[in-house]
Amino acid sequence: AQKITQTQPGMFVQEKEAVTLDCTYDTSDPSYGLFWYKQPSSGEMIFLIYQGSYDQQNATEGRYSLNFQKARKSANLVISASQLGDSAMYFCAMREGSFGNEKLTFGTGTRLTIIP
Amino acid sequence: DGGITQSPKYLFRKEGQNVTLSCEQNLNHDAMYWYRQDPGQGLRLIYYSQIVNDFQKGDIAEGYSVSREKKESFPLTVTSAQKNPTAFYLCASSIPDSTPNQPQHFGDGTRLSIL
Fold this sequence. Notes:
Distance between the termini of chain B: 35 Å
Number of helices of chain B: 0
Order of helices and strands of chain A: EEEEEEEEEEEE
Mean pLDDT of chain A: 93
Structural class of chain A: mainly beta
Number of strands of chain A: 12
Low-confidence stretches of chain A: none
Number of strands of chain B: 11
Oligomer: heterodimer
Distance between the termini of chain A: 38 Å
Structural class of chain B: mainly beta
């Protein structure tokens, strides 16, 4: 079974609109962390936001927020007021277990295109 | 500025040839990782190292080898046993056993192609 599932291969969004990128995960470990990365066409991976399994509040970082629904095992990324520079691949990733396990499992990504 | 440097940016391999991808970091991170990315897919872990002189296989280690003789350096060799090496390779580093929200930091990648 896939540990990280991103069901939207591609999305087109009008500039200045909000966009939600879906991510569901599968783990039996009570301690885990969820990460979102942005990959522009140049290839580097840029860390955007983190949500821990024990965090009580949804994570926010500027225009990025995470809609964390633990019971549904989903961690959707919300980008508010999208900009042309947001066009990129977006990856959801999970780290299972507590300290000592730093390995990440990545989803297949969503290609986001912002339309002017 | 601190960061991760991967070289070369583009690399071409002939049949039966071993090639080595370089990864250097000056972030003083103990842990380093190598990922492979194929078109339309996410990143898959090849090898990782949490400390100097120690490394472990990831999910797709066959046909690859690594060394970790220095904290700053984690080179990846793509051997002739790797029959389908064409991919984008990303190196990353992190601080192990740190606060859980510490992300992995990535280099700019090396694109490997077969001649």
